[in-house]
Specification:
The chain is mainly alpha-helical. The protein has one domain. The protein is built from five helices and no strands. Helix 2 packs across helix 5.
Length: about 90
């Protein structure tokens, strides 16, 4: 039986708090509710997934934060890249 925090958030307490395990603890809504208030755990998880604090601070539902963490862990997460400047030059014909 795997004691991954991804299965149950409290499994984080049963092993070393590595960056990966801390991030896996946020893969459930219960984990987000439990660990979001601990800056040391959020900091370690952020080393693996840098967008995590923004997801938490944006006020998303814990379920939605957990979905994004799962997508990242599964390799399906792609952060939205927004260019610094947006130009409309050439979009409107003369």
């Amino acid at each position: 039986m795997s004691l991954s925090p991804r299965a149950r958030a409290d499994f984080l307490l049963l092993g070393p708090a590595t960056e990966q395990r801390c991030l896996e603890a946020f893969a459930t809504a219960q984990g987000v509710l439990l660990y979001a208030r601990y800056p040391n755990i959020v900091s370690k998880a952020t080393s693996a997934f840098r967008e995590l604090p923004a997801l938490i601070d944006d006020g998303l539902l814990p379920e939605l934060v957990a979905v994004q963490v799962c997508r990242f862990l599964d390799g399906g997460y792609a952060a939205l890249e927004v260019p610094e400047t947006i130009s409309v030059d050439g979009l409107i014909p003369d």
